[in-house]
Write a structure and sequence with these properties.
Length: about 150
């Protein structure tokens, strides 16, 4: 079995377990927000978010989010569409650890996840800030259209 096959089996098993526990506890699995921490986490979180029909996938990083200019910390992009991100992936504008996070986020929002979020994991309570504030923090990625 290839690595992709192993990942697919692991994701399917995790999806069944999450769905069962959610339903058992009276939670709609589609209302879940999945959080990923580095490594292959974004790939798994997005696969699970897609399978569960989750609203959000969130990635904790060590930067504020997606920056328009990597040399300018104040150039945070608060909202961007998958369509706008694809050329950045294709032309090499994104580098390092941001590539798998953004690629996973683009795949997720193109496959039913409402939004994906790149969040600065160094910020205290960043998940609460994202989930319970209207403005949000970090970068929100959606399939298309402007942020409401």
């Amino acid at each position: 079995m290839t690595a992709d096959g192993v990942i697919a089996v692991v994701d399917a098993n995790m999806e069944r377990a999450l769905r069962a526990v959610s339903v058992e506890r009276g939670v709609n699995p589609g209302r879940l927000a999945l959080v990923a921490f580095g490594g292959a986490g974004p790939l798994h979180a997005c696969a699970l978010a897609e399978a569960l029909g989750a609203e959000k996938a969130m990635f904790l990083t060590d930067v504020a989010g997606l920056l328009a200019d990597v040399d300018e910390p104040g150039s945070l992009v608060s909202h961007i569409t998958a369509e706008a991100l694809q050329p950045m992936i294709d032309n090499g504008r994104l580098t390092g650890g941001m590539i798998p996070k953004v690629a996973a986020a683009v795949h997720a929002v193109r496959n039913g996840v409402t939004s994906a979020h790149l969040l600065d994991g160094r910020v205290p309570h960043v998940l609460l800030l994202e989930l319970f504030s209207d403005a949000g923090v970090g970068t929100m990625i959606t399939e298309g259209g402007a942020k409401a």
